[in-house]
Amino acid sequence: MNVLTDNFPTFAEGFLGTVELTVYSSLLALALGFVTASCRVAPVRSLRAFGAAWVTVLRNTPLTLLFFAVLLGLPRFGLVLPFRLFAVLALGCYTSAFICEALRSGINTVPAGQGEAARSLGMTFGQTLTLVVLPQAFRTVVPPVGSILIALVKNSAIAGAFSVTELLGTYRTLSELGYNIIWTFVWIAVGYLIITLAISAVFNLMERHWGVAR
User: Fold this and answer.
1) Which secondary-structure segment (H or E) carries 24?
2) Which residue of 69, 141, 159, 185 has the lowest C-beta tally within 10 Å?
3) What share of the chain is helix, strand, coil (3-state, %, to 5)?
C-alpha cells in the first residue's frame, strides 16, 4: 500500500488527467461521429464520399501515427496548442470513425419505410434523420458506443508518451524514485478499472432504460 499512500498526489494527478482526456475526447468523438454518420447516409454523393473517406483513413491509421501527425504536424502549419488539446484532438478524431460506424449500423436497422413516411409528410433529410431515424437507432447503438468509449480510455495511455499528464505516465516518476514497478502497475490498472467500470455502469443503465428488449 505504501506505493499508493506515499504517492497519492501523483496517482491522483494522473487519474484526473486520464478522466479529463476521456471526457473531452468522448464529447468530440460523439459530435464528429454524429456528423460523419449523417454524411454517410446523406442523399448527397459528395457528403457520402467525405464520410467514407473519413472513416477509411482514420480506422486504418495507427493511433500512435495519428498522435505524431497531430502533435508534430499541425504546429508546422501555424496551429500551436497545448499538448493536452492536441491529444484530445487525436483521440477524438480517431474514435469518431468507430462511433460513426456504430451509429450507421444503428441507422441501418431502422426500416426504410420510416424514412419514406417522414419524407411523404414533407420532412427534410435533417428532420427525418434527427426526429425519426436517430431516436430509433439510438436504442440499438448504446452497447457498441459504450464499448468504443471504454477502448478510448485505454487508448488515452498513448498521450503519456507526448508529455501529457495521464495515469500510465505515473510509472516513470515512481520508477525513478525506486518504487516497486509491479505494484506501481497494479495501482495504475486499478485506476483504469475504476474509470472503465464507471463508463460500463452508465451505459448499462442507459441500455436498461432505452435498449432493445431481447
Assistant:
1) helix 8-40
2) 69
3) 85, 0, 15
